[in-house]
Each structure stands twice: as C-alpha cells, then as structure tokens.
Design a protein that fits this description.
Helix content is about 0%, strand content about 50%. By secondary structure, the protein is mainly β. Strands 2, 4, 5, 6, 9, 10 and 11 form a seven-stranded mixed beta sheet that branches. A four-stranded antiparallel beta sheet has the order 1-3-8-7, with no helix packed on it.
Length: about 120
C-alpha cells in the first residue's frame, strides 16, 4: 500500500503562486512515478504533471507547461507542484497519485491517490 497526503491548496488571486506538497509513505516499489492531476467542477479529471521518482524526468500538460514545476525530495518522500502565474482556469481539486508502472507519466495507470486539495484562483 501507498499512502499519499496532499497539502498547500488555498485561495489566491490570478498571477499568484502556490506550492502543493504530497507526502508519500508505504511500498516504495509501488510508486515509480508520481503524478499530479486536477478536476474542476463539471469536468473530467486531467493530468497536470508527473515525475519519475528515482530520477528527474518530468512531464507536463500543455496547459501548465512553463508555469508549473514538479519536483521531489527523495529524502523526505515528498513531491511538490510549484504553480506560478496562476489563472482562474487552474481552479480545481488537485490530486497526487502514484504509479507502479514505468514510462511517460501522462500515459500510465495510477494505483494510489491522495484525498485532494482545493486550489481556487480568483480573477
């Protein structure tokens, strides 16, 4: 089992920054790749960013590339999502997820999910 706990969400204004954190615990071999997803009201959940746990290779959706940065602290078993230049359309519940597969993060199946953290960006 893998446990994921997100934190760092909140209410900000357009143009502001937020950093989300995801603390991971449990079976390390079940989390080869860590991902961030988001789901806005009335919309399907979408991939935001992903990173290989044992490396630095990262993948981003086109809507956040250049504004968001995913990173991980190997020693603290924590993955971060730095979100800059936030826009109202970034408003969503953000979820951290772990995949035991290896490959391009956006194409993998994710087995473990956190509870989500709300990000609201006002215009």
């Amino acid at each position: 089992q893998v446990q994921l706990v997100e934190s760092g969400g909140g209410l900000v204004q357009a143009g502001d920054s937020l950093r989300l954190s995801c603390a991971a615990s449990g079976r390390t071999f079940s989390r080869n790749v860590m991902g961030w997803f988001r789901q806005a009201p009335g919309k399907e959940r979408e991939f935001v960013a992903g990173i290989v746990w044992s490396g630095t290779s990262a993948d981003y959706s086109g809507s956040v590339k250049g504004r968001f940065t995913i990173s991980r602290d190997y020693a603290k078993n924590t993955v971060f999502l730095q979100m800059d230049s936030l826009k109202p359309e970034d408003t969503a519940v953000y979820y951290c997820a772990a995949s035991s597969e290896i490959g391009t993060p956006r194409r993998l199946k994710y087995d473990y999910w956190g509870q989500g953290t709300q990000v609201t960006v006002s215009s």
